[in-house]
Structure prediction request, 363 residues.
Amino acid sequence: MRELTPLHVRGVVLPDDTTRDIWLVGDRVTFEPVAGAETISEGGYVLPGLVDAHCHIGIAAGGGPVTTVEQALAAAVIDRDAGTLAIRDAGSPFPYPDLDDHPDAPRLSRAGRHLAAPKTHLRGIPIECSPEELPIAAAEQARAGNGWVKLVGDWLDRSLADLGPTFEPDVLAAAIDAAHAAGARVAVHTFSETAVSTLIRAGVDSVEHGTGLSLDDIDEMARRGTVLVPTMINIETFDDIAERAEGKFPGYATHMRALHAAFPEVVRAAYEAGVPIRVGTDAGGAIPHGVCADEMLMLHERAGMSAVDVLAAASWAAREWLGFPGLIEGGLADLVVYEADPRADLRVVRAPSRIVLKGRVIR
Ligand SMILES: [Zn+2]
Prediction:
């Protein structure tokens, strides 16, 4: 990285809740004073940036793959400018490994392409696999990404006219094992009640959406430490999905509406059971980028998560989970500053007063 002016920030550092001086030298944090550093913020509350743990910078607005690295970067920059300094891309139809070290891009933890059964995802997005192909594709996509593999665990099954599992449990388990053997963690898309139970027990690392989770599943996730990324913004679109499907698949439409109605309680139960929750917006396609704060507020207001737990889920705990050390000695030089205490009023996260990414002032 090119030479950067050392930066100095003084404020209440969360989660420690102590007023501290922080220096950023290149792409590193230090608490040792640095001569000649430029003070960019005094007062305020300092976090290591927000994390969108489920979005898609490789899916263009309106659907379909992006076609250039610049388009993917433009999406990531919208998130960055809202204070999201790390992203887990939960499946990209367009590869963009060049952005891993790009100074303008947030920290990236990427899955390769979604893996699905034929006709069980959006057109042009996944690799469509036979049961025999799925474990091989999981190992390949582990290498295409930089830490994650994305499986589609269920989808509208036209023969059932309802949600149904994409693959038999033993096939999904073999794919999870293959991804793990290739060094990646596995995130799985599930809406229904059926697939998710077997996937949790097969050792999936994160459940995406998880509208169909039972209390037994939730207990099992808590026991195993399986992460839930509820994407409440996405679940808000279920009634529209139901409306469009009503004519052809009325049972599916009813199911989707029921899952939507029950969802805040599912997330609340998971939170109360101690399931690790992360904040993910599912931006890309139908959902705009830059809405991490909206998802945080929904988790707080509708699912009953405390402000400080939402902050952990959207910041320091999520960064640790993804391997991006925050505001510790030698951590990565990312931070956001808020003028007021976000623990007292979480709406503060909508308006960072300062954003620094990779040692460089963004705002
Ligand atoms: Zn998604």
About this structure: The pocket of zinc ion is lined by residues 54, 56, 90, 282 (CB under 6 Å). DSSP finds eleven helices and 18 strands in the chain. The first strand starts at residue 7 and ends at 13.
